[in-house]
Every structure is written in structure tokens, then in C-alpha cells.
Amino acid sequence: MITLTTSRLLLSPFTESDWPFFLRLRSNPQVMRFMGPILDEKALRNVFDARREASGVFVLRDSRGEALGDIGLRISSKNPHEADVGYALLPEAQGNGYAQRSAGGCLPLWICPARR
């Protein structure tokens, strides 16, 4: 299990203990307003379980270990040479540059998966 660090963040893979955070994050209308409809708890659990199994998907944590959001890379199903970075941050964590910093922290791993 790889944990990445930036100057202000810890990026760690999802674990079972992150479920309450993920549910709170993905049930928040302010977070989901640009991402799509809020899913019911069963559907969110399926998304969460998939994230736990995925590589290149991380929980963003502050220096105290508090979860702030998540970030991941999705490879296009139509073109394996194309990918999108997706992220979600709690409202109180937005506007602090966390998405940019975490993407920069993940970039070496995404570019060179052998580092996993």
C-alpha cells in the first residue's frame, strides 16, 4: 500500500475505515453539484468498493490525517492513451490548492505505474 506525500498532504489508498468519509463526501450537494446526481447509499457503496480495489485512486488527507477529499485517474475505455483526473473535496477544503497539489503528487505514479 503506497502513501504519497506533498508539502501539505498525505495521499493514501482507500481503506474500509474511509467509508463514513466517502459517504459524507459523495452525499454532499455542494460537492456533487458538478459531478452528477447523488447516488443512494447502496450505489455509493459499490463505487467505494471499486475505489478500494483500484490503483491510482487516493484519499487526500491533511497533515493531521483528516480526510479532505479524493483523487483518481480514469483511463479512457476508447483510447488507452487518454485519461482524466477526477477529484472531489469537502466544501471546507475547496479553494486551497489541494486538487492541484495532489495531482502533482500523484503524477509520477500515474506516469510510471512500476513505482507502485
Automatic annotation (TrEMBL):
Name of protein: N-acetyltransferase domain-containing protein
Database matches in Gene3D superfamilies: 3.40.630.30
GO MF: acyltransferase activity, transferring groups other than amino-acyl groups
Organism: Raoultella terrigena
Domain N-acetyltransferase, chain residue ranges per copy: 8-110
Top-level division of the source organism's lineage: Bacteria
